[in-house]
Amino acid sequence: MAIQLEESWQSVLGEEFEKDYMKRLGNFLQAEKDSGKTVYPPGNLIFNAFNHTPFDQVKAVIIGQDPYHGPNQAFGLAFAVQKGVTVPPSLRNIYKELAADIPGFKIPTHGDLTKWADQGVLLLNATLTVRATEAGSHQKKGWEQFTDAAIQKLAKQREGIVFLLWGRFAQTKAAFINADRHHILTAPHPSPLARGFEGCRHFSATNKFLLEQGKKEIDWQIEG
Fold first, then answer.
1. What proportions of the chain, in percent to the nearest 5, are helix, strand and coil?
2. DSSP sequence for 52-113
3. What does the radius of gyration of the chain's CA atoms come to, in whole angstroms?
4. What does each C-alpha distance from 190 to 71, 164, 186, 195 come to in angstroms?
5. Is residue 4 very low, low, confident or very high in pLDDT (cuts 50, 70, 90)?
């Protein structure tokens, strides 16, 4: 597996790459490639969330489950898609909530959330790769152990991070997080198949908590 990991994350997660589970995962991904399978996102974007949001700059964490499995969608940021790709239903609902929650927020025409990542929002999928057209095809191959390690390192070594846990899967990660050290926000998943995300007001709540700590709030507005 070609590893391109931001320096601060390499320092806290580097040992994971030496563990047997990660070596098995690398072998699995190589076998996918050797058999002609298309895997998303491209190798240079697998660790995109980490590379845009250094360990010591994480202010908030949004946890997704799986990359999008359509052409040109996934690029390593949970819930995001590349410009020029139709905004998926879950992200449309996220935008609708932002419009209701943040005064003046205008719904963007694209789904590139890099601006959030560059401000300290770690957009972390539990599984970092997927086989084209097959949702969940790379689950339980080792990625979850790696991303759980990332969450655990943040929870133990940092303080005052806002964890936005949407849906039952993401909420299982609360077991790793000390609520006395961090701020945990929970809501149903923003998918149209779930109900209850509307009205959660997590974006203004995140900014309120950051301001209370003397940190700069997130500018949630995506241009375009």
1. 40, 10, 50
2. HS-GGG--EEEEESS---STTT-SSSTT---TTSPPPHHHHHHHHHHHHHSTT----SS---
3. 17
4. 22, 12, 11, 8
5. confident
> Which stretch of DSSP H or E encloses residue 220?
none
Global pTM exceeds 0.90: yes
153-173 tens-digit pLDDT: 999 999 999 999 999 999 999
> How many whole angstroms separate alpha carbon 128 and alpha carbon 78?
9
Surface-to-core class of residue 83, CB atoms within 10 Å of its CB (0-12 exposed, 13-18 middle, 19+ buried): middle
Q: Quote the Cα angle for 26-30-34, to 5°.
A: 170
Q: Which two tokens stand for residue 57?
A: 């700059």
Provide the pLDDT for residue 2. 60
Catalogue the active-site residues: 66
Q: Is the bond preceding residue 190 a cis peptide, omega within 30 degrees?
A: no
Rounded to whole angstroms, what are the CA distances from 32 to 14, 73, 77, 80, 155?
24, 19, 22, 24, 33
Q: What is the pLDDT of residue 223?
A: 86
What pLDDT, on a 0 to 100 scale, did the predictor assign at position 1? 56
Query: Quick check: 185 and 162 in contact, CB under 8 A?
Result: yes
Please tell me the distance from the alpha carbon of residue 133 to that of residue 135, in angstroms, as a whole number: 6
